[in-house]
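User: Sequence in, structure out. Go.
Assistant: Echoing your sequence, followed by the structure tokens.
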Amino acid sequence: METYDSLKEGERGAWISIAAYILLSIFKISMGYMTGSEALTADGINNTTDIIVSVAVLAGLRISRKPPDEDHRYGHMRAETIASLVASFIMALAGLQVIIQAGRSFLEGGHTAPDLLAAWIALGCAVVMWGVYTYNRKLAKRINNQSLMAAAYDNRSDALVSVGAAAGIIGARFGFPVLDAVAALAVGVVILKTAWDVFSDASHALTDGFDDQKLEVFQQTVESTPGVKRIKDIRARVHGSHVLLDVVVEVSAELSVGESHDISDEIERRMADEHHISNVHVHIEPYSESERERPQQV
């Protein structure tokens, strides 16, 4: 139940992001047109895609809270990853739209410097988004939720995009009006980069990819457990914001079933305490001196 309570708590961070993005996107787009700033308008369009991303995170958290059933014995926690994958495509389309629009403006020429008010608006919005990022990052760390942490990093990139937009606007006011269009192009590139990062992480998780370095750390924890003679096989995969770990260990053949079971319990306890992994499947086999094969890692 603690896992599902954490998912519910994580929804609060998603709602805060949604509210902030709705208000900021409306404000930036309207003020972008009023002040004649393409960079501020592009920043506002970026925030509209972030609304979709935050809604996807929220939907993923909601579905992930559903308990295991007959068709989903492991639960529904991969809904977070699927939602992130869908959001990445939407972000990519928005990024392309911003780049095409800014590219046309850049090629057409006849640039006029936007009102300096646009720069102050962009900087003020950057401060707001940095506050949202700080809140979501702390919450994601506390509840150990990867999708909310990804949303927090998206909040941070949005704050930096707004700073970049402000820099372009200020540069335009100092005699380089083309910099406003350049800043809009940069915003589009940032949107595409964020979309690619989200897509890459989601697709890697859905294909059961896992970080080799993390797996090596898990292996060291299991190897240091008293009674473990050798690790025959160890593999891990991501399930939503959680890790599923399968490990085959060899113990002395002279141990009783009860003693072998105690070693298995100790491995599970260490993985939970040291790495916050509660889903650990341990298979015990008798240790053989004749076998010296290295543990397999997948």
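User: And one key feature?
Assistant: The first strand starts at residue 230 and ends at 239.
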